[in-house]
Design brief:
Elements lengths: L1 H6 L2 H39 L5 H5 L12 H32 L4 H14 L3 H16 L4 H26 L2 H9 L4 H12 L1 H16 L3 H6 L17 H10 L3 H34 L1
Helix pairs in contact: 2-13, 4-7, 4-10, 4-12, 5-7, 6-7, 7-10, 8-9, 10-13, 12-13
């Protein structure tokens, strides 16, 4: 009887109304966000899908009015992205390991964590300007090395944060079990902690790759662009985001169509990486 009277009370009805309004606003906000995402994907597919062909992946960027593809910017983006991951991932893993395993409660870890958070949210154009000042201005020319370094600076804080978070989630009982059999701390981290957090750490690297795949501003200040085929890392190199930026602003229709196709390629690549990262993260949580 008490439950029935409680369910019919004005206070219960008021809470139900508030809950309904909150749920309605949450659904409306979700629908608003998803609508824009669907519209962006629909426009990209509509404008860029018709340009997808083998030529895009096998021919270089053309002069206005000629047929061509995006081979040199695609390979340039791949080269600088891979190099940035090779440079930034070990640094990020080592820093995250220190904060999670050695200095979890140190003041130094708090300082590193604070600086890492600032770097994580820093505008990429500021990072590009910083690398321009320390590399491009000193060397006297733009280069793919500078572009890779700028992207690596963006990779590091993402990997640091995910590595620390994933290692912190590893139960201390695993560490204690490893220590009880006489395993040195470094081997315990390598054989036990890293294995337990492997899926989450890989997810962090994939998220970092997705983050830098579409960055344009830091490459404008560092690698600039190159209309021709180049594998020289010490010279300006084409990249997909910069080519999209330049072709989209051009008055030539064929260049604009290539820009739409390049934007679709980047979007599908980032979407695929994000889905793989989420799947790995879900797998890590289920374990």
């Amino acid at each position: 009887m008490a439950l029935v009277s409680g369910a019919n009370s004005p206070l219960y009805a008021q809470r139900r109304r508030k809950n309904g309004i909150t749920m309605g606003l949450a659904y409306a906000a979700t629908g608003f966000g998803l609508t824009w995402l669907v519209l962006i994907l629909a426009v990209l597919l509509w404008e860029g899908f018709s340009g997808l062909s083998l030529r895009v992946f096998t021919e270089m960027t053309p002069p206005p009015g000629s047929a061509g593809g995006l081979l040199n910017p695609i390979l340039g983006s791949l080269a600088m992205t891979i190099l940035a991951v090779i440079i930034g991932t070990p640094l990020g893993i080592l820093a995250g390991t220190y904060m999670a395993e050695y200095g979890r409660y140190d003041k130094l870890s708090s300082v590193v964590r604070f600086i890492n958070d600032i770097l994580l949210s820093a505008p990429s154009i500021v990072i590009g300007l910083f690398v321009y000042e320390i590399m491009v201005a000193q060397m006297g020319h733009f280069s793919a090395w500078a572009g890779a370094i700028a992207l690596a600076v963006i990779v590091v804080p993402v990997v640091v944060r995910t590595t620390e978070d994933m290692l912190t989630l590893v139960p201390d009982t695993l560490r204690e079990a490893a220590a009880s059999i006489g395993l040195p701390r470094a081997l315990m981290i390598q054989k036990v902690a890293y294995r337990a957090a492997r899926a989450g750490m890989i997810t962090g690297v994939l998220l970092a790759v997705a983050r830098i795949s579409g960055e344009t501003a830091p490459l404008l200040f560092t690698a600039l662009n190159n209309q021709f085929w180049s594998t020289n890392m010490n010279a300006p190199m084409a990249s997909l985001p910069v080519v999209i930026f330049q072709f989209a602003l051009s008055p030539y229709k064929d260049w604009q169509e290539l820009a739409w196709t390049g934007a679709l390629i980047i979007t599908l690549s980032v979407l695929t990486l994000s889905i793989v990262a989420r799947a790995l993260a879900s797998q890590s949580k289920s374990q």
